[in-house]
Amino acid sequence: MSFFRGGTAMTKDYSPEKKAALLKAIDNALTGMGEPVKKTVMWHLNDQGVYIGCNNIDVLRLYSTLEQLIGSGADVVFNEVYSELEKQLTPDILTRLDSESCHDCPLTRIEKLLNAGGNN
Amino acid sequence: MSSSTFDFKKPRRNLILAAVAAILAVNAIILFAPDVESRNYYGNITGPVTAAVAAAFSLLVVKRQKLSGIFGRTYAALAIGLAMWFIAEGLWTYYTIGLQVEAPFPSLADVFWLAGYGPLGYHLFATAKFYGRVKKHTTVIVSVAAAIFAAAYVNSIIDSSMLTGENSYIPLAITIIYPILDAVMVIPVVLILVNPVRGQLTSIPWIFISWIFTTSADAMFGQTIVANLAAEVTIWNLLYNAAYICMAAGLYWYNRYFIFDEKKLTVAWQRAHR
Fold first, then answer.
1. Which residues have C-beta within 8 Å of that of residue A29, sequence separation ≥ 6?
2. What's the pTM value of the predicted model, to 2 decimals?
3. pLDDT tens string B153-171
4. Which residues in chain A are closer than 8 Å to B69, comparing Cβ atoms?
5. What dotted CATH number matches A16-115?
C-alpha cells in the first residue's frame, strides 16, 4: 500500500516559519528513533540525495526514501512529524483541518497542514 | 531518485546462507549423535551456547546504541529478555549435565523463562507497532486465530497430560502458561510477517522468524512434558537452536547496518565511489 495517493512533491516555497517548523518536526521525529539510528538514517538519506536542512526539502521524496530504508516505520516518523507541526502551527488552521483530515495518511495531513492558510 | 551506495541484497543473502549453515551445523551435532542420551546431552549444550550468542549480540547492540529513543528502549528490553533466557538455558544444562539429574519441572529455569516474556514481549509489541502497517481487521483475525490455537492447544495438553497426583497442578499450570504467552507473542510476529514493506536497513524479519521457531518448539516441548516423553523426544532442541541463531542473525544485521558507524559507512562510500 502506498501513501502517495494524490500527493504532490512538497517543494513549494513555504514561509520561513513553516519551513523552520517542518525541519524541526522532521528532526525531532527522527531523534525519536534514537540518536545512533537517526545518524544512520540521515547518512543513508544524504547518500540517496535527500538533504534534511536544505531550504526546499522534498517531503514526498523524504517519505519514499525513508520507507525504502525503514519500511512502514516511515509512517510512524511522519505521524510524529505531523504531531510536531500541529504543536507549532496556529490553532485556527488546526480547527479547520481537524474535521476533514483525521483519516488521511500522515503525508497528506502534513501537506494539508503546510498548505493551510496559504503558502506564505 | 539517486541510488544507494549500498547494495543490501548481497549481505542479506550472505547472512541468510550463514544463518542456515549455522543452524544445520549446530543441529547436525544433535541429529548425528548415536543415541537418545547423546542427543539430549548435545542438545543441553547447544541450547545455552546459541542463547549466549544471541544474548551477546543483544548486549553489543545496547552497548553501542545506549537507551535513547524507541529503538534504544526496545533493544534494551530484548537484551534483558535474552539474558534471562540464557540464564534459564544455563540452569537447565546445570541440572542435566552439572548435577546429572533430570531437570525438575517446574524449576528455577522456568522462573527465568517466564520472566523473560515480559521484556521480550515489550520489544515485540513496540517493534510491531513501529513496523506494522496493518489494517485493523487483520489484527482482529490474527488475534482470534491465535486465541483459538492457544485454546485448542491447552485443551490437548490437558487431555493428553500424564501428570497426575496432588502435585501435578503446578506443572500442568506452567505447561499451559507457555502456549498462552506464545500465542500472545505470535500476534505481533504474524502482523509483522504479513506486512510486505520492511525496509533495507531493518532486521525484519529475522527476529520475528525466530519467534515462530520458539513457539513451535514450546508447543512440541509442552506435549512431550505432559506425555512424559521429554527424555526420549528432543526434536524441540533443534528448533530452539534455530530460534536463537535467527535471533543472533537479526541482531548482527541490526548492529551492522542500523547503528551508526561512521568509519564503516565512510569506507563503504569510498569503495562505491572509486
1. A77, A78, A80, A81, A84
2. 0.90
3. 999 888 877 766 777 888 8
4. 31-35, 37-38
5. 1.10.1200
